Amino acid sequence: MLKGKTALVTGASRGIGKAIALELASSGADVAINYSGSAQKAEEVAAACRDQGVKAFSVQADVAVEEDVKAMIKEVTEQFGQLDILINNAGITRDNLLMRMKEDDWDAVLDTNLKGVYHCAKGASRQMMKQRSGKIVNVSSVVGVMGNAGQANYSAAKAGVLGLTKSLAKEFAPRNIQVNAVAPGFIETEMTEEMGETTQESLLQNIPLGRLGEAAEVARAVRFLASADADYITGQTLQIDGGMIMH
Amino acid sequence: MAENTLERVKKIVAERLDVEESDITREASFKDDLGADSLDVVELVMELEDEFDLEISDEEAEKIVSVADVVNYIDGQQ
Known about the structure:
The complex is a heterodimer. Chain A is α/β, with parallel strands linked by helices. Chain A has one domain: Rossmann fold. Chain A is globular, with a radius of gyration of 17 Å. Chain B is an all-alpha fold. Chain B has a single domain, classed as ACP-like (Non-ribosomal Peptide Synthetase Peptidyl Carrier Protein, Chain A). Chain B has four helices and no strands. In chain B, helix 1 packs across helix 2. The radius of gyration of chain B is 11 Å and the shape is globular. Chains A and B meet through helix 4 of A and helix 2 of B.
């Protein structure tokens, strides 16, 4: 399905990013596994991708840092010769009530989760424009759509990603580059494990399907948006949230 | 040297914007005379960077309006 395509997945050493990298690899795409700090975990994901018979390697970059991203895009295009798919997944949380939120917490989350997408999309688009094709999928969040107490920084960044997605979709449409977003709900990852049981329980009451999602379920939707099956879809946000948000 | 640059630029512009080389004068504006949109100009700058092996900063790229702007910039760099 993605045979002959090459992909870069940011924040792919664990969680949803890891699931996306494995899903793309199992569909036949060569995958670059970006990580910021977890070199060993990233290399394990790359090895698991190679087990699927595709090319894969891990590449370090803090997406918040422009120089890092430039070097990463250069390495990926040199190794693969092209870049067809960019998955902007890298994200961090620094949850706190606004009254207690430090400026550093605000900046760190915005820099990684929103500015990181700007850096990566800018870097990748140069290659994709030349190719006259490309797919960018941004991983937003249900809280970017509905807000969440204690996550002002995270939800602002994730809502920003949705606006960015729409603008990029319009800018790149004449060059046959589709830009879409997914907005996962509550997915079983280390990030949601940190929430604690009571929060999780109250959450379940708001999920029509009555359970948390799995990272692989997000990954399959991302793979769809990254494939030729989604050639006529751009600027959209696909909710993968068990029905929490219904448009 | 300047003539040479002009010829090379003309060739790239002709190919990228799908216009006849003979229509591309030194004074021609990419948008007004050669039918380019903003994205075309961005792409053109990218291609010129590759062809002439130089990096045109965003600030400089924004000033590029005509064929002459490109030729002068490139000759100024070399």
